[in-house]
Specification:
- The protein is an all-alpha fold and 232 residues long.
- The protein is built from ten helices and two strands.
- It has helices at residues 18-22, 25-28, 33-53, 58-71, 88-94, 104-114, 124-140, 153-168, 185-208, 218-231, and strands at 4-5, 14-15.
- The protein has a two-stranded antiparallel sheet with strand order 1-2.
- Helix 7 crosses helix 9 (185-208).
- The longest helix is centred in the last third of the chain and has 24 residues, at 185-208.
- The chain starts with a strand and ends with a helix.
- The relative contact order is 0.14.
Length: 232
């Protein structure tokens, strides 16, 4: 899958196009959209858990989760019905060998320092601000809006700072400071709403699959799809 690159910058990632977001390979294979979101969420959880068990750095784990999401975006992407991830070459071809991922976490900490709210010797409030900012960025990895393949890392970092500062009670500059980091008000507003909805969506997903586990293999998915067709 060739992703659309919006800017030539070391701080920018390749983003999914509108066409790629409107139709997925899994949908073309008959997988309902809500199941697709659930299976992608489960896959991201497994990817994160694997990274933790392997004691990988946060940067590597985040990059792996973003690449996982990229792989399943668009009609030419990997289908959730096909275990294509067994072949590294198929994954690389699907991604057009574009596996570069700029992680917003370090950007966010740098921005906090630039804004003067994360001093070299941080206070308890500034530490809480940094922790909450990183928490928003981690939650966004699971967002059903696919924020890491629809928004640039600069915007992700700025929105996380904006929300975290409001929650922790840290005063930021009165001017439109986000424009300094090349983020406009419209993008900021969208991400703020998306961030706030993440926890509720994750909670609903856990409740949804509480009694029966989310299908994690092709056989399990096919069986559930056959059962759903039989009922309808």
């Amino acid at each position: 899958m060739v992703l659309e690159s919006t800017k030539l910058s070391s701080l920018c990632n390749s983003l999914a196009s509108v066409e790629q977001l409107s139709t997925s390979s899994s949908a073309l294979d008959g997988v309902p959209s809500d199941w697709e979101s659930s299976i992608r969420y489960a896959g991201l959880q497994i990817t994160q858990a694997a990274g933790i068990l392997l004691r990988l750095s946060q940067d590597i784990v985040v990059q792996a989760m973003v690449i996982f999401t990229r792989f399943y975006v668009g009609p030419e992407g990997g289908s959730l019905r096909i275990n294509s991830a067994k072949s590294e070459s198929i994954v690389l071809r699907t991604l057009a060998f574009d596996v570069k991922v700029t992680v917003p976490h370090h950007l966010a900490l740098t921005y906090l320092q630039t804004l003067g709210v994360l001093p070299p010797v941080p206070s308890s409030k500034s530490r809480a601000l940094a922790a909450r900012t990183l928490s928003y960025l981690n939650s966004a990895l699971f967002s059903p809006q696919l924020l890491y393949v629809t928004s640039q890392p600069t915007a992700l970092a700025v929105a996380a700072i904006y929300l975290a500062a409001r929650e922790v009670g840290v005063k930021l500059p009165g001017i439109e400071w986000w424009e300094v980091f090349d983020v406009d008000r419209e993008d900021l507003g969208f991400l703020v709403v998306a961030y706030r909805s993440c926890d509720a969506w994750v909670g609903a997903e856990r409740e949804k699959w509480l009694n029966e586990g989310c299908p994690l293999t092709v056989d399990e998915l096919d069986r559930m799809m056959q059962d759903a067709r039989a009922v309808s």
